[in-house]
Specification:
- There is one protein chain.
- The chain is of the alpha/beta class.
- The chain has a single domain, classed as Phosphohistidine domain (Glucose Oxidase, domain 1, 3-Layer(bba) Sandwich).
- The chain has 4 helices and 8 strands; from the N terminus they run E-E-E-H-E-H-E-H-E-H-E-E.
- The protein has an 8-stranded mixed beta sheet with strand order 1-8-7-3-4-5-6-2.
- Strand 4, helix 2 and strand 5 form a beta-alpha-beta unit.
- The longest helix is centred in the C-terminal third of the chain and has 12 residues.
- The N and C termini lie close together (6 Å).
């Protein structure tokens, strides 16, 4: 697979390396009540991607909604190895980012969290590389 030029990143909220298939959510989601903390699958039956698993995927979404308890769900997913491989957002989210920071401090691992424009979010390819240096590389 050839690597395409990198896609623009507005800000690196948490650095790191990740590689995986993209899961772009059609609508925002609350991790508290919307993502199963045991399986990593979307458990909200009203969500268009109900049943899809975030585990080992590069999860991309405009924004997160809902409870600040979503940070504990992210931490639990990291603790059991069911978390996304990386997170790409169009709006800053302190809740999920905090869950990643706490999980890292607890020794559960970490994932990169990048902020991009809505336009970049909409043009992300199906295979993504997120680099420690703050780049998103598209795999073709």
């Amino acid at each position: 697979m050839a690597v395409d030029p990198h896609l623009p990143v507005r800000e690196v909220l948490l650095p790191g390396d990740a590689r995986g298939r993209l899961l772009r959510l059609d609508l925002p989601i609350s991790f508290w009540g919307g993502v199963d903390p045991v399986t990593g699958c979307i458990s909200d039956p009203r969500h268009p991607q109900f049943g899809c698993c975030v585990s080992d995927r590069i999860l991309a979404m405009e924004r997160v909604v809902g409870s600040s308890s979503g940070s504990s769900v992210m931490m639990e997913l990291l603790a059991i190895g069911k978390a996304p491989a990386g997170l790409i957002l169009a709006e800053v989210d302190a809740i999920l980012t905090l869950g990643v920071v706490v999980a890292r401090e607890m020794g559960y691992g970490s994932i990169p969290v990048f902020l991009v424009s809505s336009e970049t979010l909409g043009s992300l390819p199906t295979e993504i590389l997120m680099t420690e240096g703050g780049e998103i590389l598209a795999k073709s």
